[in-house]
Write a structure and sequence with these properties.
Elements lengths: L1 H12 L6 E2 L7 H8 L6 E9 L2 E8 L6 H8 L4 E2 L2 H8 L17 E4 L9 E2 L6 E2 L4 H8 L2 E3 L14
Parallel strand pairs: 2-6, 3-5, 5-8
Antiparallel strand pairs: 1-7, 2-3, 2-4
């Protein structure tokens, strides 16, 4: 149902965006970057987290890492990742295909500022071999996402303080 729910989401909300299904797996950031011919940074990975009794999605650049301090400052608790079966139940998407589109359960979506570095990002589309190409501002608008600064600052080579 997952790929179908994402396809239906785009048919209804953004018919100009095609869901791209590949022969190759795009279940990880490196595989997705290779399958879609983009930089790993352009992959928009989606993380499913629990904040007290609420489940949220955080979408961030494929090479970004969640900053626990920024997350706690923003939400008041440490981030807790969900188990794969709970992710599937709540989103209808398998791990490796999780995205903020066509969700089984409505939930808050947060787009990390790391996505704003790109004109186009490639999030999954409900399956481990499906994705879309989309402008991050449009993705945030379509999913009613809130922008948030949740990623660790990138490490600069040679900077021992980072």
């Amino acid at each position: 149902m997952s790929l179908e729910s994402v396809t239906a989401f785009f048919s209804e909300n953004a018919p100009d965006i095609a869901v791209l299904v590949t022969e190759a797996s795009s279940a990880t950031v490196p595989l997705a970057a290779e399958a879609h011919g983009v930089l790993p940074e352009q992959i928009a990975k989606t993380i499913c987290l629990r904040v007290a009794e609420t489940v949220i999605l955080v979408v961030m650049s494929g090479t970004a890492r969640l900053d626990n301090r920024k997350f706690k400052d923003r939400f008041g608790v440490k981030p807790r990742m969900l188990e794969a079966d709970e992710v599937l139940t709540l989103t209808s998407h398998p791990v490796g295909g999780v995205c903020p589109f066509g969700l089984a359960t409505p939930m808050p979506v947060y787009c990390d500022l790391s996505l704003k570095a790109f004109n186009e990002v490639v999030p999954a589309a409900g399956a481990t071999n499906a994705a879309v190409r989309i402008n991050p501002l449009r993705m945030a608008a379509l999913t009613k996402a809130e922008w948030a600064d949740l990623a660790q600052a990138p490490k600069i080579e040679g900077d021992e303080t980072a």
